[in-house]
Amino acid sequence: MALDQFVNAVQTLSTQGNYAELCEHLNKSVEVLQRNPGQLDTVLESLDMVQHSLGYLAVLVAKLGQENIENWGDLLAKCDTFISLCNPEQIRFSPNSLSDLCHILTNELVKRECAIRGISIISRAIKKLQLTSSSLTPAHSDLAKLCLTSKCFSPALPFLDTDINLICKENGQFDAVYLLMYYYYGGCIYTALKKFERALYFFEVCVTCPTAAVSHVMLEAYKKYQLVGLLVHGDKPKAFKDNLALPKYTSPVVGKFLKPLCSAYNEIVTAYHSNNSAELRSVVTKYQELLTTDSNMGLVNQVVASQTRTNIRRLTRTFITLSLSDLASRVGLATPSDVERELVGMIEAGSIHATISQQDGMVRFDTNPESYSSPDMLRMLEEEVSAAMALDKQVTKMEEDMMVSPAYVKKMIGVRGEEDDDAGNRMSSSNNAVSSGSSKLPGYSM
Known about the structure:
Blueprint: H1 2-16, H2 19-28, H3 30-35, H4 40-46, H5 53-64, H6 72-85, H7 88-91, H8 95-111, H9 119-129, E1 135-136, H10 139-150, H11 157-160, E2 166-167, H12 176-192, H13 196-207, H14 216-233, H15 240-244, H16 252-261, H17 263-272, H18 277-286, H19 288-293, H20 297-316, E3 321-323, H21 324-331, H22 336-349, E4 354-357, E5 362-365, H23 375-403, H24 406-439
Parallel strand pairs: 1-2
Antiparallel strand pairs: 3-5, 4-5
Helix pairs in contact: 1-2, 5-6, 5-8, 6-9, 8-10, 9-10, 10-12, 12-13, 12-14, 13-14, 14-17, 14-20, 17-18, 18-20, 21-22
């Protein structure tokens, strides 16, 4: 009986276009749906995905929330079809419901070890929720999680490569955990793809998110931030604190609580900059169990290899020629063949310019032959200038939008009102002081 009333209410309110009242009715009907799991399939058959999108969505969320889901394949297919056919106009009245569907579906897919099946579903859900292509939704973190779990990274890249300039709030709010998870998972994906500069940016956003208390997500991001920072800036001549110091707007609690919890990673950073490979390997061995538990051992091994390449680059600024055996001893490698292998890889990558003589085993370091006048270099310069101009226009537009927003205008009026009151109080105090001072002037009689 209760479910019949639910179906009738959904059909009537959807036909009338009274979506605000429909959302209120759906919120009150959550317990009814949860108490009748065996009849939810019948309810779904009574509703149309397009005409009754909000009601259909509420039933799907209730079915996914069951402890023992029956006919999982059929339910997943219905979720897939619904996200493709649902009415965007109705979904905008309750975007948090579609986000809830994405969260529950993602967790269930990961639990069943079939994360790859949900990637296309969540991708389409994000496009339904987005106001613009550069807006962030709670479902972004679900897509990144599925791609990372399934090790299928390419579907997430179009979203990750787009810089975010708007957050899609649901009922005026946005749960910060989904922002943190999106940037953390995104940083992990870029790290796996060896796009370390972009990964460092994502981890930095996660760590520097305004907060009054640190979370476990921020802690894990800070650990990877330090390691990836060594891969990006480890060979820079500037001091490490200048290259990897967190921005000034970082919350004070980050330095107060996160850094003491990452003592092992702090020691790795110190050992890396000692330019002593034996010292770095000693620290890694000391904390090997912890690093393995944190799932960071593979990244640490890359840091160890990076230190060797950094030491080789440092020697290119000091010597013109060196023997392979001498170079191997200076950078801490066992044999000349090991250092030759590293040199060949660095030469192929273009990180150094050198010539290896097979006759006498000598290495000659050359200067960079790039004249910065090739078509490729000019094309890259043009792309960078275009990107900078686009960013300037975007910032200008955001500033203009902010200055005319009701919240900003109201706040500025309040600030000016307070300033005017303070100025009036100061003027009144000054007048009182003059008046009081005048009454105390000595009188003179002629």
